[in-house]
Design brief:
Elements lengths: L1 E5 L3 H12 L3 E5 L30 H9 L14 H12 L3 H29 L17 H5 L2 H9 L9 H4 L3 E4 L14 E12 L2 E8 L6 H13 L6 H9 L29
Parallel strand pairs: 1-2
Antiparallel strand pairs: 3-4, 4-5
Helix pairs in contact: 4-6
The structure holds flavin-adenine dinucleotide (FAD).
Length: about 280
């Protein structure tokens, strides 16, 4: 069969490749002087099937409105009366419910996993070379709300047996202004157990787990005590919720483990600008 593929981006070129492989006579028509010069040119290069998610998601309509007013906006809408565009927009809005999102994500995941298998085969068959790395994706959430919002994604990942690791969900229970009595040594001389923990980031590097705590000040043994509790979760001896419960107990007796001091380092101090100006 004679086939015309319109557009020589990654989709057009790979479609043409498979069609030609199946014995068809294929012509790729591209308006640019070469292939892969538009969207497929210099994207982030990430191949993460487990990460693929539909745009149509709960909260998208509000987000989209905000995007439209951003300086570097990820979304541009050129208003025109186009029935196809209007119908597409309505379908998008209809799919922004939690149930539709999960359903669609599951479909995308199955397709993405199939695509990855094809890509692996393509690599072997053509010996194409690029900076392929297979270390997975590290996703950073800045707020507890964002982290909680991943529950639907995680349910789908579990269902499709996509490997994932939630590194610091338990840690986020400690971020913010809290009474840290549980995490405070009996020798602590601070007047109040109330402290604001700005950040508690957990990441893994090979077989090392790095935990970075950021705050204006800490109580005596606070960091070691927090790390000890996170270690209990990491070792599977505590459920994540136990960290939150330990915090709420405001009782040193509720502490799981006070981590040893080895490996605890002061990283840096940040002074407010201007305070020490001459
Ligand atoms: C900033 C950015 C980062 C991204 N990062 C990632 C990532 O990390 N991982 C990932 O998987 N995806 C990523 N993507 C998405 C990915 O790049 C696109 O999904 C993919 O490139 C789309 O390929 P395509 O072939 O469909 O489109 P395109 O690459 O846009 O190809 C379409 C081609 O059709 C041609 N064309 C259009 N109209 C005509 C016409 N009338 N006649 C002739 N030719 C025509 C165009 O010139 C173009 O070359 C990213 C996208 C962007 C913008």
């Amino acid at each position: 069969m004679k086939v015309i593929v319109l557009g020589g981006g990654v989709i057009g070129v790979s479609t043409a490749y498979y069609l030609a492989g199946a014995g068809h006579q294929v012509t790729v028509i591209e308006r640019q002087p070469g292939v892969g010069l538009e969207t497929s040119f210099a994207n982030a290069g990430e191949i993460s099937p487990g990460y693929s998610a539909p745009w149509a998601a709960p909260g998208l309509p509000i987000k989209a409105i905000k995007w439209l007013f951003m300086h570097h906006r990820p979304l541009v809408i050129r208003p025109k009366i186009d029935p196809a565009m209007i119908l597409w927009g309505l379908a998008l809005l209809r799919n922004c419910t939690a149930a539709r999102y999960e359903h669609n994500k599951a479909r995308m995941l199955a397709l993405a996993q199939y695509s990855r298998t094809c890509l692996e085969q393509l690599r072997t068959d053509t010996n194409i070379q690029y900076d392929q790395r297979m270390k997975g994706t590290l996703q950073l959430f800045r707020t507890q709300k964002q982290l909680d919002g991943t529950a639907a994604d995680i349910a789908v990942l579990k269902r499709f047996d996509v490997g994932y690791e939630l590194l610091d969900r338990a840690a986020q229970a400690l971020v913010g202004l809290h009474d840290f009595t549980t995490f405070r040594s009996v020798h602590c001389q601070a007047r109040s157990p109330l402290k604001t923990l700005d950040r508690l980031d957990v990441r893994r590097e090979g077989d090392r787990v790095l935990i970075a705590a950021t705050a204006r000040s800490f109580l005596h043994h606070q960091v070691r005590s927090m790390v000890g509790c996170l270690a209990m979760v990491g070792m599977g001896r505590w459920a994540e919720v136990r960290v939150e419960q330990a915090l709420a107990a405001r009782d040193r007796g509720a502490l799981g483990l006070n981590a040893p001091p080895e490996g605890l380092y002061f990283v840096s101090a940040k002074y407010p600008e201007g305070d020490f100006a001459p």
